[in-house]
Amino acid sequence: HSGDETLLCSALLLGAQAQLKATISPETAESSETHSSEPQRTGGSSSSSSSSSSTAGLLSALSYASEACSIARQRGDAKANVEGLLLACEINALLYEHEEALRCAKEALKISEALGDSSQLARAKEAAMVLRERISVSQ
Hints:
The chain is mainly α.
């Protein structure tokens, strides 16, 4: 059963990454069919619909990442939890939820320090630093 949860956690992390990629660079993720119908839209509605669909895409990715973190925590898989937290951090930053993104980065930082995982630690430090700058600029 724990093998199933490991698989589910990995699938959720991959799903979150794929959804995030598709949302931030839709031209590479969309099929050619979508592109051929694109010019028929009116100019004004095209931009607003793409921004709301990108928000929906980000929220969907965030949901996957949060679920992966939850499963990882239940299983005691700190490495997967950090991966999910870093994804959630990135997604929250794209949604301009900088405080929540910073919370995720700090949690990822704490766990990766305890694990001694230098690559995740470096990513978490970088994320926290960037977010602190964004928050101080916006205040």
